[in-house]
C-alpha cells in the first residue's frame, strides 16, 4: 500500500509540473504534505519533516551553488569565456573548428550554468557557421553536448552537487570519476554522432550572422583559462593530496580543509574577483552587482532542490523509503542501473534534469546504503539518467529548435538523440568504472 501511495504522489507531482504548469518548489511542498498525510505521519510532525528536509538538503549546498553561480557569471561578463573560445578557434584553425568549439563548450560549461552557457555559445557557433559556410547542426551540436555533459556529471553544477550531498559522496572524487566518464561520452554524443547530421537542413536566424563584439579589452588567455578551471584544479589536487597526507596530523587536517568544496569555491571566487575584476579595472561595486545578479539566476534552482529535500525527508520519516529499498532488492536490477532508470523515467515525465536527479536520489538512497554502492558512482549514474531523452517538455529542446530553426522531427532526431546518447553512454561509463574498481 505504501508503494502505491508513493506512486500516487509521484503522479500528482508530475501532473502539477506538466499539466498544471505549477512552480516546482510549490509543487514539491504540496506533494510532501500530501505524502506525509497519506503515509500516516502525525499532522503536527509534518512541518518538522519539511523543515528538516529543506535544512539538511540546502544547508551544505547553498554556498557551493551560490559561489559557483558568481564565478560563472563573472567568467561570462568579464569576457573570459569569449577569450577561451577565441583562443581555441585560433589554435585549431578552420579544419578542426568543430573540435575547437567542443573543447570551448566543455571548458566554459564547467563554471557556467547550462542556460547561460547555451546563450553564450550559440552566437559564437553561428558566427563560425556563417563565416566558414559550415552545416549548423553538425558544428553546433557537439558544443551543446559538452554543456549538457558538464551540467549532468560535474560539480559545481547544481544537480551533481546536490546528489553529492544526498549520497554523502566525495566532491573531488566524484569530479575525477565524472571527468573519466564525461570525455568518452562527449566524444560519442558529439563529433561521432554529429557526422550523421551533416546534411540536416538548418537556417539559423540572421540575427547571429555577426557575433556581437564588445569594445572592452578581454582578459589574458592564461588568466581566462586558469580562473575558469581553478575549482577543477583545486578539487582534483586536494583529492590526490588526501592519499599522501593521512592520519590525524595537521597536514591532513589542512588538506581536508582546503579540499572542502565550500572553501574551494570561496577561494576561486576571491581569485576571480581580482584576476577578472579588479585587475581588469572593474570597480568593486560593478563586481558585487554581477554577483547579486548571479544569485537571482540560481534562486529558483536552490528552491527546487530544497523542495525535493522536503519530500525526501517525508518519505524517510514515514519509513516508506526503507520499504521501497527492501522491495527493490527483489527486482534483481543493479542499484546503479536502478538509480539511472528512475531518474530517466522522471526526466521523460517532467523534462527537468535537476528535478529528475534529486527526486530519484531521495528514493534510491536507502537501497544504495544497504547494497554498499559507491556513492560517487551513484551520483554519476543518477546524473546520466537525468539527461536521458529530452523532448517537448524540456526547455532545452525548444531553445535548440528555435535557435537552429529546425522542425520538430529534426529536433527529435538531433537534440533528443544526442541527449539519449549522453545518458546511455554515461551509464555504460559508470558501470565500466564499477567493474574496474
Automatic annotation (TrEMBL):
Compartment list: Cell membrane
Transmembrane segments: 24-41, 53-76, 96-129, 136-154, 174-194, 225-245, 257-278, 335-365, 377-400, 412-433
Principal localisation: membrane
InterPro entries: Glcn_transporter (IPR003474)
A molecular-function term among this protein's GO annotations: gluconate transmembrane transporter activity
Topology within the bilayer: Multi-pass membrane protein
UniProt keyword list: Cell membrane, Membrane, Transmembrane, Transmembrane helix, Transport
Keyword Cytoplasm (UniProt): no
Membrane is among the record's keywords: yes
GO cellular component, one term: plasma membrane
Record family assignment: Belongs to the GntP permease family.
PANTHER family, sorted: GNT FAMILY GLUCONATE TRANSPORTER (PTHR30354), HIGH-AFFINITY GLUCONATE TRANSPORTER (PTHR30354:SF22)
Name listed for the protein in its UniProt record: Gnt-I system high-affinity gluconate transporter
Species of the source: Chitinophaga arvensicola
